[in-house]
Amino acid sequence: MGTVTPRSVLRYETWTLQPDREPDAEPVLYAMQCAVDGETSPTSEDFAEPQNWVLRHCGQNPSHHTYREIITRPWRAWRQM
After folding, report:
1. Model pTM?
2. Which contacts qualify for 76-80: CB closer than 8 Å, 24 or more apart?
3. pLDDT, one tens digit for every residue, the chain (81 residues)
């Protein structure tokens, strides 16, 4: 039949994934979202700001009792040698 030659080479590698804590990493950001009307607080590096937004929002909308926490956390991946 003839000689069979490989058309591709597969190489399995081990990768690591972890939160980026390097000095130049993007900051962790927090926000809160009302699950009733979808309104979202401003994003902040300090969780107290979105938390205060929730307290104001539920004060203005007494039937809005459920919220979602939104965290944006930088991650980094690298190949282990």
Report:
1. 0.77
2. 76/17, 76/18, 76/19, 76/20, 76/22, 76/25, 77/15, 77/16, 77/17, 78/15, 78/16, 79/13, 79/14, 79/15, 79/16, 80/13, 80/14, 80/15, 80/16
3. 677 777 888 888 899 999 999 999 999 999 999 999 999 999 999 999 999 999 999 999 999 999 999 999 999 998 987
